[in-house]
Amino acid sequence: MASLRCHFYLITYMESLDPRVNRLNLSTTELTSKAPLDQLGTYEVFSQLKEDKPYFHVGPVHAPNCEMAFLFAKEQFSRRQTCTGLFVVETRNIKVSVFTEGEDTVYNYISNPGELANGNTESFELFHLKKRGKQHEYIGTIEASSAEVALSMVKSEFINDKPVYNIWIIKTSDIESSQDEDKIIWDTLPDKKFRDAIAYKAADKIKEFKERQ
Amino acid sequence: MMTNTEALKELIYKMADDQLILGHRNSEWTGFGPLLEEDIAFSSMAQDKVGQSYALYQILNDLGEGDPDTVAFMRNADQFHNSQLVELPNGEYDFSLVRHFLFDTAEAIRFQMLTNCSHEPLAQLANKIKGELRYHTMHADIWIKQLGRATEESVSKLQDSLDRLIPYAIGVFEPSPMEDQIIEDKIFEGEGKLRQQWEEAILVVISKTSLNLPDLSLVKPVYGGRVGQHTEHLQPLLDEMSEVFKIDPTADW
């Protein structure tokens, strides 16, 4: 069963899932859909550590729908750190750019817009990967007629000298977010030190135990 | 205001014992949950429950009762005041989920009422853990809505568990002999009022599913837990839970 799934996985998603593969082929399309990771469907989770800090990507959860994804994400990603807000979005609804590295910013590969925003615009959330191996972080919100147009507009609005290695764009309406009236669910997190190994001062006891051996 | 300490203690004992026993039961799912994410969520909530029981035993300790560990680990089944609902073995996941839904809905309303309790430490605790309880009921409601309208199999399994558990769930509201005193002293609005609000709350969720709530006025409640009458399932749970403490009461992490 596992090997069968693996096989399916490789054929379908290899091109877009593996960054090493992406790097070999930089000039295909500018945006692809981020591939789901498993058969139940995955949702990407974004967390905010403090009220005034930007949301950043913390990882995926498996779930049958958005509501349950939020439910799982809450315990998964606020168990060992503080949190003041959380949202989830279905993995396939994240538009992913190509990857770059070194001094090469991904915006070198974004072309100018063919068409600018016409009548019907929607809001899109933009995330940057500023260091390889780190998480994508929220940069800003853009009104545009599509993710592609949003991407081309970003270039003029949010770029500074530092290279950006990858971009995620998410339609705001695809996001399931914590509600203001539910903010109290984060209240007692700082009291749960017992969930951290560091709260257990065991070193002395282990030393004493070893000496007795 | 002068509060009736005996009535207050009785109320806190039954709440603390409910939380401790259900916390332990739910923790038995750790490592066996239906998917990893749910395993972690359910285990975290079990941990919350044990933490809440500790806080309640601490309030009892301040009212002159024994220290929390001794009270939790050194009593026998007939000295526990938990409802029989919380001591029943886990069964399959549908059973544990329905119990979680029925119990946590009642618990959240009870603590909401207690935010106005005349005994200040209990009111403070009720305010402090509001957020934990909000997540617990959110979790229960979403699962019941999901499985309660998913497939024929999931609906029939939940329905069977619901039918089996309802008499035990109503047992949670077993009136205290000091009920009038508790209400008069503004400790708590009483089991009758709690039950009424609970019935409305569970109906809101059940009516969004394909499940049928039995006619609650015809259900014969399973009472006895509050006065120390328990099923044969409680004592083995207590023996397991207190095993380490009984070997070495000073054992610490």
Written description of the protein model:
The complex is a heterodimer of chains A (213) and B (253). Chain A is 26% helix and 23% strand. Chain A is an alpha+beta fold. Among the domains of chain A are: 38-92, Phenylacetic acid degradation B (Ubiquitin-like (UB roll)); 94-175, Roll (Ubiquitin-like (UB roll)). The longest helix of chain A is centred in the first third of the chain and has 16 residues, at 2-17. Chain A is globular. Chain A starts with a helix and ends with a helix. The longest helix of chain B is centred in the first third of the chain and has 27 residues, at 36-62. With 253 residues, chain B is mostly helical.
Write down the overall geometry of chain A: globular
* Poorly predicted ranges of chain B: none
DSSP strand count of chain B: 0
CATH third-tier fold name of chain B: Ferritin
CATH fold group of one domain in chain A = Ubiquitin-like (UB roll)
Terminal residue distance of chain A: 47 Å
Query: What is the largest interface, and how many residues per chain?
Result: A-B, 26 and 23 residues
What is the count of β-strands of chain A? 9
List low-pLDDT spans of chain A.
1-14
